[in-house]
Fold this sequence. Notes:
Blueprint: E1 3-9, E2 13-20, E3 23-31, E4 41-50, E5 55-59, E6 66-69, H1 75-78, E7 100-107, E8 116-118, E9 123-124, E10 128-132, E11 137-139, H2 146-156, E12 164-168, H3 177-199, H4 213-220, E13 226-231, H5 234-247, E14 255-257, H6 270-276, E15 281-283, E16 289-294, E17 298-304, H7 314-336, E18 340-345, H8 352-366, E19 373-378, E20 384-388, H9 395-399, H10 415-432, E21 437-442, H11 444-451, H12 455-465, E22 468-473, E23 482-486
Parallel strand pairs: 1-13, 11-12, 13-14, 17-18, 21-22
Antiparallel strand pairs: 1-2, 2-3, 4-5, 4-7, 5-6, 7-8, 9-10, 10-12, 15-16, 16-17, 18-20, 19-20, 21-23
Amino acid sequence: MSGELLINVTPSETRVALIENGVLQEVHVEREAKRGLVGNIYLGKVIRVLPGMQAAFVDINLDKAAFLHASDINSKLILNEEQSSEQVPDIRSLVHEGQYIVVQVVKDPLGTKGARLTTDITIAARYLVLMPNANHAGISQRIEDIEERKRLRDIVQPYCEDDHGFIVRTAAEGAGDEELRHDAEFLCRVWAKVLERKQRKQTKVAIYQDLSLAFRVIRDFVGVSLERIRVDSKLTFDQLGEFTQEFVPELTPVLEYYPGERPIFDLFDVENEIQRALHRKIELKSGGYLIIDQTEAMTTIDINTGAFVGHRNLEETIFNTNIEATQAIARQLRLRNLGGIIIVDFIDMTNEDHKHRVLHSLDSAMSKDKVKYSISGFSALGLVEMTRKRTRESLEHILCDECAVCNGRGHLKTVETVCFEILREIVRVNRAYDADKFIVYASPAVSESLVNDEYHNLAELEVFIGKQIKVQTESLYNQEQFDVVMM
């Protein structure tokens, strides 16, 4: 299926939208402030060796010197193999002051501590990880199927050379020959460029930087049929042009600079689609709708006929709504990037053929998704259980924060409930402490209810405890917030 990528770049944020057949299918977001140094490769200079700590400080042109422990040094790169052993060698036999060494950041600087480094370099792509100084193909332990492990090793092993090998990532399970070949070729080009920069003694900047979002997306869409890649930043467009020419030349012809006055994400209604993807309720064209609830443990999707009444009979109406819902579900899972356990509550069907066709339709719609998934049949309760691999944060977790008022519950206590809590709190405080009178500070809605709707209950409480209760409105309080103050 052909598609189009829209890349929106600002100094603080990069967003990428994948459009297929004129409809938004995926959104990727990266905030510049949250990008770290992990994965960057530097030609560093050892500035201090600390035998007591079995470590060295390495200058990689950051504010603070980076930290390299002896256990993070691949001794085979420094010593002869016969000299290396299972025990960590003395740091002084591995590095010395003034020495230049290729290192990779494994932990970002934090507080007063500098970055943590290693000499075991790895460069990751979508399906493979390149390992310099290895010559074999390793398979992720999380791929358990023996036949699949053999298949992947047979595909990748021919790309291994004397000076580099590959690890096959978990995401590669089920990947085809072409996809793995694209990854291997890309990584070999990147490593060749790293070696070239190393020879130039390039020490002021990283000789390899973990790719930013725009570049990662370009890398990951190698082999996908793209009609156009439109970029609204001239600087990023020029950088992507150099990147594609060097590493993925097949994508250079479809790269375009978008200078339009209309924001690029207004094309194909992307901005509005992103906003709709944050709502619980998703309307279907027929009049039915989905309710999507994302929790820590799982995501639940409920399908309802809504205003759709159909033209024949109830069973046919339910079936048609469920079929339409399968397409919307597959799209929403990609768009929102929902992973883990997903429970779908289709409208109950009694016809077994209808159930089979709904499952087939869901599987067919999900087959367009690059992320690994599995679908189980209908359970005894009429639910469909499925899983989708977690690849990155969901759209909601990237763009939204927990509600400060309801603490993520999605609900607020009613005004009446809060009023009764206040009355109980006054009784509790009166029993525990000796006070002459009480002042209640509450939100405008709760304050108004106390002096109007709950006036009789408040008056009875004053008689019961024999003390005056005064209500004070606090306009900045949320509906559940209140204070009972003794005077």
